[in-house]
Amino acid sequence: MLCPHCESQTRRFGRNRSGSQRYRCDVCRATFTDDSTLSVDRRRVEESRMTLCLRMLLEGMSIRATERLTGTNRNTILTALVDAGERCQRFLDRTLRNLTVNDVEVDEVWGFCWCKEKVRERRQYPLELSGDAYCFTAIERTTKLLLA
């Protein structure tokens, strides 16, 4: 195996915590792990189990309940969830162009962070503690496509 830094010969140099083989370069003394055994996105979880985790989340299960039932670490689940969301965003940005919509339903969802706005003003909390939070949505009536 060749060193990724200087392209020189390497030797085996023990194993890391997860059991992967480590190597050390004879010239530059850099140590590294052979990542060719890992999947493309560096996860060590089977694709079927990751799909099961995401399906459980889509059905409304909590992350910790999914962690308990599948035996998958919650950080791995969250990373997969973020990755799936980013891929969906790229797909929608690429495919949904120049749509004609007939009827749009617009609504807002109100919530609050830390405390309600009236309480924040009364107690003179700083603006960083937020207050009211609104989320505006626009849905095309016939196709149920979320526009904004």
Task: Kindly describe this structure.
It is a single chain. This protein is α+β, with helices and mostly antiparallel strands and 148 residues long. It has three domains: 1-37; 47-95; 104-140, no CATH class. The chain is 32% helix and 22% strand. A hairpin with a 5-residue loop joins strand 2 and strand 3 (31-33). The radius of gyration is 24 Å and the shape is elongated. The N and C termini lie far apart (51 Å).
Key phrases:
two-stranded antiparallel ribbon; about 150 residues; alpha+beta; 4 helices; about 30% helix; 3 domains; about 20% strand
C-alpha-based Rg, rounded: 24 Å
What number is the mean pLDDT? 86
What is the overall shape? elongated
Q: What gap, in angstroms, lies between the N and C termini?
A: 51 Å
Low-confidence segments: none
Portion of residues within helices: 25-40%
**What is the beta-strand fraction?**
15-25%
Number of strands: 5
Main β-sheet, spatial strand arrangement: 1-2-3
SS field, number of helical segments:
4
Note the main sheet. Answer: 3 strands, antiparallel
Number of domains: 3
- Structural class given helices, strands, pairing? alpha+beta
From N to C, what is the helix and strand string? Answer: EEEHHHEHE
